[in-house]
Structure formats: structure tokens, C-alpha cells
Automatic annotation (TrEMBL):
Keywords: Aspartyl protease, Hydrolase, Metal-binding, Protease. One of its GO terms (biological process) is proteolysis. Residues 5-79 form the Retrovirus-related Pol polyprotein from transposon TNT 1-94-like beta-barrel domain. GO terms for molecular function: aspartic-type endopeptidase activity; metal ion binding; nucleic acid binding. Residues 298-406 form the Reverse transcriptase Ty1/copia-type domain. This is Retrovirus-related Pol polyprotein from transposon TNT 1-94. It holds the Pfam family gag_pre-integrs.
Amino acid sequence: QIYLWIIDSGCSKRMTGNRALLTNFVEKFLKTVHFGNNDFAVIDGYGDVVIGSMTIKKDYYVEGLGHNLFSIGQFCDKGLEVSFRKSTCFVRNEDGVDFLTGDRSSNLYTIALNKVASNSLTCLLAKASSSQSWLWHQRLSHLNFATINNLVKTNLVEGLPKMKFEKDHLCSACEQGKIHREHHKCKTAFASNKPLYLLHMDLCGPMRIKSINGKLYVLVVVDDYSWYTWRVRTDNGTEFKNKTLAKFFAEIMKSSTTNVETSNVEIPLNEEEVFHESSESFQGEYSSSSLNDDVHQSIDYDVPFAPVARIEAIRLFLGYATHKDFIVFQMDVKTMFFNGILKEEVYIGQPLVFVNKQYPDHVYALDKALYGLKQAPRAWYDVLSQFLIDIDFQKGSIDTTLFIKKG
């Protein structure tokens, strides 16, 4: 026998007027149903529709209803999609799999359930209760509900009801089973009670791409108490090196002795090397003056103390001048290191191709700096800064390379 079911968009629930189709019938007055012609009927109860191995749960019985009706709203509530074409209709899941297929006849879309395969309508129209869902979840060794629904569709488990199983709460046994033991013991918590008591530092680099200022390393310092963060960009990443300890080892290496035979080959000195005259009186005077010099700790005497304009200050100056529409002039001083006046005694040897034949053993005493001297940048800075101050410029207190003249 063929049972046709009409796909009805105006029907709120599945219902039938054929009492013989319902099994496990529960006779109970529920409510009334209104039709399009303003007539109404009474819902006298509900039951299950069993066709072969397929079961449709809780189908309403309306006495006098001449058709079997499927509700599109109930399909959509189950996460299904109902599509209509010119001569057919489809009921699909979210993956696009067709569960039901109907035909169009006399302007109505109907589905013949006896033509539907027994495993194609599993758990679509009926939903398992919470107790049934968790009972089968435990019976199947805490199998996840998506796999249980796949077992229902493929009819692989005997006795498994053809319903839709849903997870409405968490399973404590599953949660405990997924917990894993920590691989390492917890470290003893060390709490700082004031700022700068405990700092966390991380040095990253060298980076493949330099920053705007040519930096290759990034140092991040985090205060454990306040979680204030400092970010320092550097070019060589030596912030963690102990400078005092490095100098200490350098002194040890200087004091060590090695047995090396001296060479008899004379090596000429060029004009860039600084030395004193070979007379005994001059040697004594120079040595005594050197011994009387004060040596201060934490000062690197190998570095020439010449202020250099920072790229940040130059950018700030150019940006401000552009904002105010100022005219910026740039001037380069040629051979500027030749103009620096030396404050200390500096001597150089005679160039090899310009040796005075009358005084071949004499040296030159410098009045001004030369290129190659460590004092040259500082000497030129002193001359230039004094000249600018004499013409009413004021030197910057923070950036000593900045001179300002107020009109």
C-alpha cells in the first residue's frame, strides 16, 4: 500500500487522519487545528508511524483529515534543508545529502514513504530523549554522538533505535579521560613585593631585516611586580655581557707571557702612528707626564669623545621644519678635520717619500688634527661649537649637537 505525504509549509506539526497508521497511540486532547477555509479540527492524540524498518515518532492524529502532512518547519528545526524544483522536491542535510525525494502531482509536492530506503530517514523525524542518548553513549564505550548518528544511518548496530542523538551536557568520564598528566613539576612560585625586584628579560635576534635605525636585536624587559614593559632595540645584542668582567679577563691576557723569538726586521712607521722623539730627555718628560695623568674607572679611553647627531633628532628637526614651512640649509665643511686645534702634544713620523735628508730622525709636532687621529673629531667639534657660541648660538642641554639662536 502506498502512503503519500504532502510537503506543507503552512503545517506546524506532522499530522495524519488515518488512525490505522499509528502505533503506540496515546489518546489525549492536545489542541485544535485551524485550516485555510476557517474550519478547525481537534487533535485527539499522537502515535508512531511505522513503515518497514522506518519509524516516525509522535505524529498527531486529527480525525477527519483527508491527507498525511509533513511540516517544513519541523524539517528546518532539525537542521535540514527543503528545496523545491519544477517537478520534484528534496530534503537535504547540511552536507547536501538527500534524505527524502518527492514528486509534484496536481500542484502538490508529495513523498511516498514506502519508496524511501530503510536507512535514509534515520534520526531525522524523531529525537531521542536525554536518558536514551546518554544510555547508548555509555553502552558504546562513550562514543561521540556524531559517530552514533552515523551508526544509526548505516544500521550497523542491532537494537540501536533510529533516532537522532544529541549531546545536551558534558560527560564527566569523557572529560577526565582527556586530561593528561603534566610532564614537568611545577616550579616554586617566587612573588616579588616591590617594583624592579624581579625582572624578566628576553633578547631576540639577530633579525633578518634591520629596523629603520639599523638595529638587529630587540631586548624586552618586564617587571614582575607591575608588569611594566621596556623594549630596547640594539645593534649588537651585548646588553647581557658583563663589561667589567670582560675587562678583567683582558688584563689577565695582557699579563700572560709567551716565549717568542724577536724579529730583526725593521718595520717603518707611517704618519698615522703617534710616537715621541728618541732623545732621553724627551722620553723622561713624556713618561713622567703620562704617569701623572688621572685614570678614571668605567671610562673607555679608546673611544673618541665626539658628539654625533642622532638620526632621531635629525628626523624630528626635519619634521618640525616641514610642519612650520621653514627653509632648511645644509652645509658641508671640506677637510674639516684639518681645522681642529689639538690641546695635547701629538707627534708623527716623517712620511716615507718626504723624509728630510738633513734631519731623518726627527718627527713632526702637530698643531692641528689630521685624518686618522682619534682626537680629530673632538677637536673639530670644539672649534665649531666655540665659533657658534661666539655668534650668540646656544648649545642644547640634552643634544649637544644642536645649536639654537633666538632672534
